[in-house]
Amino acid sequence: MQAPGNPDETIFDKILAGQIPAAIVHEDDHVLAFKDIQPQAKVHVLVIPKLRATSLHDLKDRPVAQIGAFMAGVARVAEKLGLAQGGYRVVLNTGPDAGQTVFYVHAHILGGEPLGRFGA
Ligand code: AMP
């Protein structure tokens, strides 16, 4: 009989655990980064911290060092993707009103082309 899954487990938990495939572009002690399956820009990569949190809001009481490691990870991934010079946009959809669909905190890195003014 199949063991019941954790109902709180998201698709990103499964990617982090190696249970489902993803186009991984970077992994280190703190973050995992993989290509978004529905890219919204020429380069669209998701970065997740290796600590379980539902959203950015859920990080507010975590140790600053952990939050900093996540943010530094985002910048390192952007650099690895060759986006440092041209720049890039980072989006953290937080909660339903923001359109968050996967409830494991993740940063979208968008770039590789001019993105236009935010919200335009
Ligand atoms: P958000 O709306 O901020 O929660 O973003 C979730 C993102 O995850 C969307 O841009 C999806 O296209 C992306 N996504 C969902 N499933 C996968 C997957 N298996 N591999 C890569 N990206 C995914």
Q: Overview of this structure, please?
A:
The protein is 19% helix and 21% strand. By secondary structure, the protein is an alpha+beta fold. The chain has a single domain (11-111), classed as HIT family, subunit A, CATH 3.30.428. Strands 1-2-3-5-4 form a five-stranded antiparallel sheet, covered by helices on one side. The longest helix is centred in the middle third of the chain and has 17 residues, at 64-80. It starts with 10 loop residues before the first helix and ends in a 9-residue tail after the last strand. Bound molecules: adenosine monophosphate.
Question: Main β-sheet, in a few words?
Answer: 5 strands, antiparallel
Radius of gyration from the CA trace? 15 Å
Query: What distance lies between the first and last C-alpha atoms, to the nearest angstrom?
Result: 52 Å
Q: Helicity level, as a percent range?
A: 10-25%
Following the backbone from N to C, one meets helices and strands in this order, namely HEEEHEE
Number of helices: 2
Q: Using the 3D structure, state the CATH architecture.
A: 2-Layer Sandwich
Classified by CATH, the class is: Alpha Beta
Output the strand order for the largest sheet.
1-2-3-5-4
Output the CATH homologous superfamily: HIT-like
Mean pLDDT: 94
